[in-house]
Write a structure and sequence with these properties.
The complex is a heterodimer of chains A (219) and B (126). Chain A has 219 residues and is mainly beta. Helices cover 3% and strands 28% of the residues of chain A. In chain A, the strands form 3 sheets. In chain A, strands 1, 2, 4, 7, 9, 10 and 12 form a 7-stranded antiparallel beta sheet that branches. Chain A has a 3-stranded antiparallel beta sheet with strand order 3-5-6, with no helix packed on it. Chain B has 126 residues and is mainly beta. Helix content of chain B is 3%, strand content 46%. The chains are: A mainly beta (219), B mainly beta (126). The interface between A and B is medium-sized, with 37 and 31 residues. Strand 13 of chain A pairs antiparallel with strand 5 of chain B.
């Protein structure tokens, strides 16, 4: 079996995992989660408590009548709060920007096919109809993702709207399955940037959860 | 076949190789010898037999959710066992999910140049 570790860059999105000066937090996938938010005086980087639902609602992004709005901040809610002090939240630096090393998907071995990132309504992986996922039209998903292992995404990158199994992000940028690790290598690092863009004048305000999923295979 | 094995391979020279399980399949430990027959154990205990192919391929498909109530769990979704002869591939897709007709098999046919086949890691063909 090939194992997956997901890390969030909280220091410098120009530095790859393992390089000098890198700062990544490995997600405890059972307890940690990601929050996309506009932030507020309370909801911010380096919180000393887990944000409440009310606090998150107050930090919601406002729909703009005229222009699309990219939710400006992604926070990792770190249940263990043991990084850099007793902080529960760490900003995913570079999220949405022209930055290469934001989210790290690390595989400790070969895969039989190219790993891919998906978005679903819930853990049944049967529907992707939430408003944030395009309200039934996957191409309209507000969740945009781009594979950045080999290059910067570019200024104002559009990304792939991910929703369901028809709109997915190939995490190796279309480069195919991951080969066995070379001598001395302990993992393959695949990087991506993920943002949420709310269309102008979107008619339905909502607070929604969705499921980000990594699908992968091994021989 | 001992029900603890995921698969049993019989080579042309009549030697055998015993596979592992879904998490540790041992597929990449298969000796580089011509395969005569594969006995593949299905979730219900029955056995699928493949023979007469030039090459064989096996993979397990899993997902891990980053968000949602099942986040962090590695969920096995499907097992695939395939046989290739000339430019044709037969693929058996076996559901491993209890909630999704576990053990249900879909038999599908592809050409070797179909994307479903070309996307496979070539090192996995035995």
């Amino acid at each position: 079996m090939t194992n997956l570790t997901v890390r969030v860059n909280y220091i410098d999105p120009d530095i790859a995992y393992g390089d000098t000066g890198a700062g990544y937090i490995a997600m405890d996938l059972t307890n940690d989660y990601l929050i996309w938010t506009s932030g507020s005086d309370v909801v911010d980087d380096l919180m000393t408590h887990e944000p409440t639902a009310d606090e998150l609602n107050e930090a919601s992004t406002i729909i703009d009548e005229s222009v699309p709005v990219t939710i400006p901040m992604c926070l990792l809610m770190d249940y263990s709060h043991n990084v850099g002090g007793s902080y529960y939240t760490h900003e995913a630096v570079g999220m949405g920007e022209n930055k290469q090393y934001v989210f790290d998907f690390s595989f400790d071995g070969a895969t039989a096919t190219e790993p891919q990132l998906e978005a679903w309504d819930d853990d049944t992986h049967t529907t992707a109809s939430a408003h944030v996922l395009g309200n039934g039209t996957p191409a309209n998903s507000m969740v945009k993702a781009v594979a950045t292992t080999y290059a910067l995404p570019g200024a104002s990158w559009a990304g792939t709207p991910i929703a369901g199994n028809s709109n997915v992000l190939e995490l190796n940028a279309g480069g195919g399955a991951l080969d066995p690790l070379a001598t001395g290598e302990i993992s393959h690092e695949l990087y991506a940037n993920i943002k949420i863009v709310i269309p102008a004048s979107y008619p339905t305000p909502a607070v929604e959860q969705f499921v980000l999923t990594v699908r992968y295979t091994w021989n | 076949m001992n029900k603890n094995y995921l698969y049993l391979i019989v080579f042309e020279d009549d030697t055998q190789f015993v596979g592992g399980d879904y998490m540790s399949t041992k597929w990449n430990e298969i000796p580089s010898k011509k395969i005569k027959r594969i006995f593949y154990r299905l979730p219900g205990g029955d056995c699928l037999t493949l023979s007469g192919y030039d090459k064989y391929y096996h993979m397990i498909e899993a997902t891990t959710d980053l968000l949602g109530k099942s986040r962090g769990q590695v969920k096995l979704r499907h097992a695939y066992i395939m046989g290739k002869v000339a430019d044709k591939v037969v693929r058996y897709k076996i559901s491993l999910e209890i909630k999704n007709n576990k053990g249900e098999i879909a038999k599908e046919f592809f050409n070797s140049d179909d994307k479903e086949i070309t996307k496979l890691n070539v090192l996995g063909w035995k």
